[in-house]
Amino acid sequence: MDLNKNFRPFVSCAAVVVWFSLALQFSVSLQLLNNDYPTTIKAFLSYFTVLTNIIVAICFSRLSFVKQVESGNLFTQAPALTAITVYIVVVGLIYNIMLRGLVLPAGLPARLADELLHVVNPLIFLLFWVFFVKKSTLQYKQSINWLAYPFIYVVFIVVRGYLINKYPYPFIDVVQLGYPTAILNASVVMLIFWLLSLLFIFIGKKT
């Protein structure tokens, strides 16, 4: 197990916060879409932010009940935990650098969900990684494997967008930007994932 002792109280509280933020965002989205559950679910699960926060919530929930001696669980291993850290930190970075202010959430519940998903939850998982994950055995070659999830997401969004003519993020909106620019933007985002992965591995190996 690549975790320090006494992690359980932290992850248990964190799980509650992340699940609450997801439930709150789903409730807000459901109201915006006139209580249409199928449409809301499809739209909800099209966002990288939501999918990654779900992974974070599952991770924290699983760790809340994991045995101290358990080592075979994916969520007790430093490479998986570091990859998730990269994913959720990218969520926070891209939103706050590129997307904040493009759409203003209306109402307190929407604003609260927005801040939790894009600011609070990334910070919580980053703190978990810093203080509770044993990172010294990380390897730089692992960074390539970590690109699988964002790459699959990009492919999914492009195919989905082609079929329904709708994209969840403006920087990959083929309708507005065209394929060359959208693919270039997606490539830049993938590069950010890779460089951030290398940075986290470098920091991990120094601790």
From TrEMBL:
Annotated keywords: Membrane, Transmembrane, Transmembrane helix
Keyword set includes Membrane: yes
InterPro entries according to UniProt: Pr6Pr-like (IPR049713)
Parts of the chain that traverse the membrane: 44-66, 78-96, 116-132, 144-163, 183-203
Residue ranges the record marks as coiled coil: none
Designated name of the protein: Pr6Pr family membrane protein
Organism: Pedobacter vanadiisoli
